[in-house]
Amino acid sequence: CTRAKPWKNKKGSAMAANTLRSATTLTGLTRVAEPLPLLRELYQSTIKVLQTLPPSAAYAKRSLAVTQERLAAVQADCVDTAQSKLGVGEIGYAIEEAQAELSLAKHMQQNKPWEGSPEVPPPNQWRWP
């Protein structure tokens, strides 16, 4: 398992042994000091929200299976192993995806799309000439 490398000054010497880079080499993707506990928390929160949705909802079934699989992948204490199991180049991508999935699950919980529209469509709305 590799650790994040400390910043180096212009002369090439390490500035501080315990100072981690504050950003990745990818624009807009910030480095998280402890990504695996954060991912575990995000996945567990998503699972809790998904379990409140009806089990017959297709979104709930599929998302629950994927989230449980991803939670199992981050149980190791090695970021490199987790990145490999999740299939992401940077663990930050997995964090962004997990945050977006949690947000979507909460949105689905609130809007209940499986209940259908309360409005009845006008006659011939779906008729094609």
Report what the structure shows.
Helix 1 runs antiparallel to helix 2 and helix 1 runs parallel beside helix 4. 47% of the residues lie in helices and 0% in strands. The protein is built from 4 helices and no strands. The relative contact order is 0.15. About 14% of the residues have low confidence. The radius of gyration is 21 Å and the shape is elongated. With 129 residues, it is an all-alpha fold.
Brief rundown of the structure:
With 129 residues, the chain is mainly alpha-helical. The chain has 4 helices and no strands.
Comma- or semicolon-separated keywords:
129 residues, mainly alpha
Radius of gyration: 21 Å
H and E order: HHHH
What is the strand tally?
0
Helix content: 40-55%
- The overall average pLDDT, rounded, is 82
The best one-word shape is elongated
- Supply the number of helical segments: 4
Strand content: under 5%
* Largest sheet: number of strands, sense, barrel closure: none
Q: Low-confidence segments, ≥5 residues, pLDDT <50?
A: 4-10, 13-23
Element layout with pairings:
Blueprint: H1 35-50, H2 58-73, H3 79-86, H4 91-111
Helix pairs in contact: 1-2, 1-4
